[in-house]
Amino acid sequence: MKKEVVLIALGFAFLMGCNGNTDEPVQETTPPIPLINYSVKRTYLHDTTSFTEGLLFHEGALYESTGAQPDLLSTRSLFGELSLKTGRIDVKAELDRDKYFGEGIVFFGDKVYQLTYTTQKGFIYDARTFKPIREFSFPNKEGWGMTTDSTYLIMSDGTNQLTYYYPDSFVMKQTVPVSYAQNPVDRLNELEYINGFIYANVYTTSTIVKIDPATGVIVGRIDLSSLFNEVKQMYPGALEMNGIAYNPSSGTVFITGKMWPVIYEISFPI
Question: Which residue windows are transmembrane per the record (predicted)?
Answer without folding.
Answer: none
